[in-house]
Amino acid sequence: MSRKPRFLPLYSWLLIGYLVLPILVMVVYSFNDVVTGIPNVSFTWNGFTTRWYQHWSDVPGLTASAWLSIRLALAASAAATVAGTMLALALVRYSSRRFRGKAVIDYLMYLNIAAPEIVMGSSLLGLFVTMRINRGFWTLFLTHVVFSVAYVVVTVRARLTGFDVRLEEAAADLGSQPLTTFRLVTLPLILPGVAAGALMAFALSLDDFVASDFVSGSIQPFPVWVYGATRIGIPPQVFVFGTAIFSLGLIAAVVSVVLSRRQPAR
Amino acid sequence: MSRLAFARRWGRGATPYALGAPAVVWLIALFLIPLVVMLVKALETCSPITQACTMTWHWSEFSYVWHGSAQSIFTSLRFAAYATIIDVLLSFPIAYWIAFYGGRRKNFFLLMLLVPFFVSFVIRTIIWQFLLSSSGIILTVARDLHLVGADYHVLQTSGAVIAGLAYNYLPFTALPIFVALERIDKNLLDAARDLYSSKVEVFRRVIFPLARPGVFAAFLLTFIPAFGDYVNQQVLGGISNTMVGTVIQNYFLTFSNPTSGSALSAIVMGISLIAIVLGGIAIGARNLGDYV
Fold first, then answer.
1. Which one, of B250, B281, B245, B225, lies nearest residue B84 by Cα?
2. N or C: which end of chain A has fewer CB within 10 A?
3. Domain finish residue from B5, B33, B58
4. B190 interface with A at CB cutoff 8 Å
5. Do B87 and B23 fall within a single domain?
6. Which residue range is the domain that position B269 belongs to?
7. Are the CB atoms for B154 and B160 separated by under 8 Å?
8. Does residue B150 lie in a domain region?
């Protein structure tokens, strides 16, 4: 390689600073006191307080929306991961002679990834209204799986493509049943791909606003609740929840980086 | 053939279909069918009083919403295009640096690129609204330093919306470009240099062509969601630069007019598909499927 470029590190750190800046502002202002009667975030600094952390659950609508988002993300990412992994296995392992319609399924997935969320959200709203389905947790669940399952398929498929099929054949030669082979050989080897797909589905669901805005009905997931609050004033607890979710995500990511480093090179 | 052997053979033949069924049925029932229902709804006429809809093959709905919303569609296309171009230009150097010089700290830098994902999209946009507001920290300092005039403002302008879109989708651009650059065999670069390529030529004839799949994925993950986005426009923009997402949202959620909303949604879907094909051609993708 040629010698190290000098301006690239500086540029990269500046860009990282730009990405991190709003998050720092959120964390700092979650400790900002409020002097007016109505507890809404203000961006003038009124002094340091941990009040909003002590009273984190004082805004009932906000707490309910945060729990809803977590339950929804868990349920939707679990369903999308199972269904997506199964489809990825079928697409990689079976030739188009044994699995007819493979090409059509590929197009269906690309169409799904290419569709703007607003089109998915509004068309699902139309479907639910036409079928007189009440909007709530289950319509949100169905919607979140729709926009995340194709991402799981693509992620798991990428991992499966480099898979040595002889390992499974060896297991079968040693008398292993197909399900046992899957549990003891296939799954452990593709697990990083499955985990990446599951994390992606979880993150997509947790942060989804546009599609949820259309299909949520009377209950509101966290981003929809926060967006609604922007019109009347944002309670400081929003930043507390934001900081908590950010910290948990960061810890999970750091742990996964450390674990992946500790794994011996294959 | 014994019954058992027959069942086993049939069972083996059915395996791929059984494995694929849940995801495929889900996508057909809740992605494809809603798109068809959307088209059907666009062609119906609804009574404003009873809300009952009947099929009237009312194709003129499309030209009606087109005339009403073409402005917002062009605004959205323009904003999404600017945001995508800005993001690709901003991402390339950092993705290049992490991929080729990241070394042991590669994972750390990738994590830093991903950091915005851990904070809700809506909260990030609200914070930019605060940072860019006339009483916000950036403009206050700029005014005190006489860099900008007293009545200079950023919010309510197209620039604020484009900046918001560019910020929010930057990781979606940087990651695919990084993945593509990371896959490049470093020996190719050495080979090009050994054959007396200049730096510019190495980039133009080796790095960029090999990064194309990443640039296409970045385009797909940035341009398309930015095109349909309405949060950035509603929070950071004003009423003069309405994006098409806002118009669709209003049709469905404010005016209870699913007919016009569905027609406009269908138009947006069509434009997105055309944009993907054109974008693919512009970036030099030969087979779109290879890059998704």
1. B225
2. C
3. B58
4. yes
5. no
6. 65-291
7. yes
8. yes
Q: Is residue B6 part of a domain?
A: no
- All domains of chain A in start order, with CATH: 1-51+238-266 (no CATH), 60-235 (1.10.3720.10)
Within a domain: B228: yes
Say if the Cβ atoms of B112 and A213 lie within 8 Å.
no
Which residue is associated with the tokens 């990834």?
A113
Within 8 A of B20 by CB-CB distance, chain A residues are: 86-87, 90-91, 99, 105
Please say whether the beta carbons of A1 and B188 come within 8 A: no
B217 and B154 in a common domain = yes
B107 and B42 together in one domain:
no
> How far is the C-alpha of B69 from the C-alpha of B248, rounded, in Å?
9
Q: Which residues in A lie closer than 8 A to residue B220 (C-beta atoms)?
A: 113-114
CB pairs A-B closer than 8 Å: 247
Task: Give the chain B residue nearest A228 (alpha carbons).
Answer: B122
Comparing CB atoms, the residue among B34, B122, B262 nearest residue A209 is B122
SS3 B177: helix
Residues A98/A104/A105/A110 CA torsion (nearest 10 deg)? 150
Residues B42 and B164 reside in one and the same domain: no
> B267: nearest CA in chain A?
A119
**In this structure, what DSSP letter does residue B64 have?**
H
What is the number of structural domains in chain B? 2
> Is the four-CA dihedral A231, A213, A200, A119 of positive or negative sign?
negative
Chain B interface mutation, best of A119, A230, A256, A257, highest count of B Cβ atoms under 10 Å: A119
Inspect the interface and report whether the beta carbons of A126 and B258 lie closer than 8 Å: yes
CB B133 within 8 A of CB B139: yes
Q: Spell out which residues of chain B touch residue A122, defining contact as CB-CB under 8 Å.
A: 38, 248, 252, 261-262, 265
Which residue, among A146, A155, A160, has the nearest Cα to A77 in the 3D structure? A146
**Residue B269 is part of a domain; what is its CATH number?**
1.10.3720.10
Residues B122 and B248 in one domain: yes
Complex ipTM tops 0.90: no
Examine the domain organization and report whether B46 and B127 are in the same domain.
no
Tell me whether residues A23 and B124 touch, CB distance under 8 A.
yes
pLDDT tens track, chain B, 292 positions? 455 555 555 566 888 899 999 999 999 999 999 999 999 988 888 777 777 778 888 888 899 999 999 999 999 999 999 999 999 999 999 999 999 988 888 888 888 888 888 899 999 999 999 898 888 888 888 888 888 888 888 888 899 999 999 999 999 999 999 989 988 888 888 898 889 888 888 888 889 888 998 999 999 999 999 999 999 999 999 777 899 999 999 999 999 888 899 999 999 999 999 999 898 888 876 655 554 4
This prediction's pTM:
0.89
Are residues A19 and B249, on separate chains, in Cβ contact within 8 Å?
Answer: no
Same domain for B238 and B110, yes or no, is: yes
Name the nearest CA neighbour of A83 among B290, B30, B105: B30
Contacts of A118 in chain B (CB under 8 A): 228-230, 245, 248-249, 265, 268
Strand positions, DSSP E, chain B: 44-46, 53-55
Between positions 46 and 85 of B, the ones with CB within 8 A of A are none
Q: In this structure, is residue B43 part of a structural domain? A: yes
Nearest chain B residue to A154 by CA: give it: B292
One domain for residues B277 and B257:
yes
